[in-house]
Amino acid sequence: MDLTKLTIKQAHDGLKKKDFTSVDLTKAYLSEIKKSNKEINAYLSVFEDEAIKDAEFADQKIASGSFSELTGIPCAIKDAIMVEGQKCTSASKILENYTAPYDATVIKKLKEEGVVILGKTNLDEFAMGGSGENSAFGVTKNPHDKTRVAGGSSSGSAAAVAANMACYALGSDTGGSIRLPSSFCGVTGLKPTYGAVSRYGLIAFGSSLDQIGPITKNIEDAKIVFKAISGKDEKDATSRKYKYEDSNTSLEGLKIGIPKEYFIKGIDKDVEKIIKDTIKKAEDGGAKIVEISLPNLKFALACYYIIAPAEASANLARFDGVRYGLSAKADNLMDVYLKTKGHGFGQEVKRRIMLGTYTLSSGYYDAYYKKAQEVRQLIKQDFVKAFEKTDLIFAPVSPVPAIKIGERSDDPLSMYLMDIYTVSVNLAGLPGLSLPAGKVDGLPVGLQIIGNHFQENKILGVASFIEKMLQ
Amino acid sequence: MISEEEVKHIAKLARLELTEKEIEKMQKDMSAILDYFDLLKKVKGPESQLWAGDPEERSDEGQLRKDEVISSHDIVDELISAIPDKKDDYIKVKSIL
User: Fold this and answer.
1) Which domains does chain A have, with CATH numbers?
2) Which residue has better confidence, A128 or B75?
3) What pLDDT digit, counting tens, does each position of A169-217 carry?
4) Distance CA A280, CA B18 (A)
């Protein structure tokens, strides 16, 4: 039996039946990482010794009879989420030697379940990017085609799960960073409702948009991880009192909204066909398909690329070489700032800091930032109206399957256009899922399922029906 | 097209040192992106006010915590050890003037 191919549920059942131990599982993953990571570059650091210790501890818990579905299951963590005592780089030179002083709340919760943390995964620097190419430590390759990107920004998390280098992973999603790499790598990724999961200990990018979520092999696993990490945290004032409860939502009579604005020029014909075929299958399964309109959707990308960089320019001001991280040598304080940031940040991060500083600066604030906030409100209202008529919205995750490495890296605007179907969900604070729906020439394509606030249970309930239909 | 001077001014506000080559590329990239933002001029004047959270978000279970000191003394040593330049427990910085 190849232990690295098991889902969380299957691995849990094996541990329960004593078919194997957590140490066996962990060793299997570590050996897979040794074999494949050099080429894929999914992990930035691997905790070999600590992982075995975690596993031994988990095996004791299992022997004592008091354990959960996640106990002893090996996972990977995006390197923007802090694990105490381990490096946390956010794939940036500016944090290359930074050690996390405390656990993120999601890590604390996972540790309480007795999970095994295998290591930290690659990403676009500070989670800024859609391809994974903006990492200061090299691109993550797509396990399905190593000449292509894994998608970003949670590139390493999605690739690690797809390449059996972790049973599941945590990612974060500000404008599509869980859903896009999940779609490109053919795994399941859930971006939860804003406020469903604590962001404490996640290195901030766009604070009104960021959410942590699971990347898994199937829907059942996504439920297990989401259940474990969600809920109110006093250390994150935006987190909400929320408890996940399974719903038995079936396709029968379910109203699925298809936004006509999502199927426009620019979408790859084969991707469109896969999404439409999946929608047809849902209809055959008893769902009612309703065409809806989100008239302000066409403004979402511009709106997002004003708001997210504006928030980023404020959040990243803290990397000044004074309190932690890289500190460039210079004679006066101003030069320390200039050189630290100039040398420490990569091109895309600099671009976003510049954009954010520009749109917030005197004379431009009203035309850009204020306008974007107004448009954000309109986009939210579009979704409110849509959910009056529908239970869930189905859409593509990305207009294209995984792109070639280098294909768009010199043209930021064409890279941003890959986020066209995902950013509106973050602007509206909604939950969205990427479910593998098919393949184009061997490259996976994800279906995006969007729900109303805190209706992850409805998304996951329906997704598990669709998952079965597609098998 | 955003000017070279504007790029330099914004870079200074952002405390970013950019090379001549970076300034040139930034000019090109920012101009293309800012042109794309012009799309927002087509938005029909919204009646809505600036976003301040949804009503249900605002009224939720008292989002603000009590104004009490929560001790994080247990990680003081870790925080201090991350400081690039220090004397005892103080942060050292270069002269401002």
Assistant:
1) 3-229 (3.90.1300.10)
2) A128
3) 999 999 999 999 999 999 999 999 999 999 999 999 999 999 999 999 9
4) 52
**Alpha-carbon distance A218 to A460, whole Å?**
10
Answer whether B69 touches A (CB < 8 Å).
Answer: no
Question: Tens digits of per-residue pLDDT, A124-172?
Answer: 999 999 999 999 999 999 999 999 999 999 999 999 999 999 999 999 9
Angstrom distance (rounded) from CA A153 to CA A80: 10
Tokens 């829907």 belong to residue: A219
What amino acid occupies position A105? T
A36 is catalytic: no
Q: How far is B21 from chain A (nearest CA, A)?
A: 12
Give contacts of A 275-314 with B, CB under 8 A. 296, 298-299, 301-303, 305-306, 313
CA dist A386 and A402 (Å) reads 30
d(CA A465, CA A470): 9
pLDDT in tens, A246-293: 988 889 999 999 999 988 778 999 999 999 999 999 999 999 999 999
Chain A partners within 8 Å of B63 (Cβ): 237-238
Give Cβ neighbours of residue A226 (< 8 Å, ≥ 6 apart). A190, A192, A196, A197, A213, A214, A244, A456, A460
The pTM of this model reads 0.96
Does position B58 have pLDDT exceeding 50, yes or no?
Answer: no
Rounded Cα–Cα distance for residues A83 and A146 (Å): 29
Q: Give yes or no for a contact between A118 and A395, defined as CB atoms under 8 angstroms apart.
A: no
The amino acid at residue A240 is R
Q: CB-side exposure of A325: number of CA atoms within 13 Å?
A: 24
Query: Is B84 in contact with A321 (Cβ distance < 8 A)?
Result: yes
